[in-house]
Amino acid sequence: MLTIWGRASSSNVMKVLWLCEELAIPFQRIDAGGAFGRTREPAYLAMNPNALVPTIVEPDGFSLWESNSILRYLCATRPGGERLHPPDPRARAEAEKWMDWQLSALNPPMTTIFFTYVRTPEAERDWPATHAARDRAEALWGIIDRTLEGRDYVAGAMSLGDIALGPYVHRWFRLPIQRAPMPRLEAWYQRLLQRPGYARHVAVELA
Ligand SMILES: N[C@@H](CCC(=O)N[C@@H](CS)C(=O)NCC(=O)O)C(=O)O
Questions:
Q1: Region for residue 9 given its phi and psi (left: phi exceeds 0; alpha: psi -120 to 50; beta: otherwise)
Q2: Are 78 and 130 members of one domain?
Q3: CA nearest 12: which of 40, 51, 47, 52?
Q4: Interhelix angle for 160-174 vs 127-147, to 10°?
Q5: pLDDT tens per residue, range 8-35
Q6: What is the pTM of this model?
Q7: Binding site membership of 130 for ligand 1 (Cβ less than 6 Å)
Q8: 164 CA distance to ligand 1 centroid (A)?
Q9: Are residues 95 and 145 in the same domain?
Q10: Closest CA to 4 of 19, 21, 22, 16
């Protein structure tokens, strides 16, 4: 059976758990990272020298880190994966650009906002940085809102693009921040909430 190392509160672990549910992939999860530690133990570092989660391990010992690479790998190796990661080069690229954009553009401001409200004691919060990050994130969510004009999912059909972005849109709508109205973004979030894997693993209390 597939092993997933990583605490369930990690956005990057959530993506993998959600995909496993979408594709009915059996797995066992082992808590690691954050308060659970373990990521600096030699055995973990041998699998993932970044000391981050998630890491997956196949029964034959093959291991892989970097959540979006894990999503691609699971789609390539499990039945039904092509449904969420189509072989057609253009359809695939449409989804992959959102995966790269999540890592490079969206992740930095969303991490700043999330850490301020959820992981940083009030006295230590950096408000100028948080306000700048909120502004930046709002501009980025505006890009998604406009992309969703006339489509249900970011690449047209449901894809790994939606899975990579899903944890962050939940945080965007749950954090106690100001948000410009974005009806298509809200409708997409509501659509994701209908998916059992998203509801179970991603749309959880912020921690
Ligand atoms: N780009 C990496 C980032 C991994 C990452 O930053 N993971 C965070 C949790 S979301 C982590 O391990 N933080 C340290 C910890 O939990 O101990 C990925 O997508 O997998």
A1: alpha
A2: no
A3: 52
A4: 130
A5: 999 999 999 999 999 999 999 999 999 9
A6: 0.97
A7: no
A8: 13
A9: yes
A10: 16
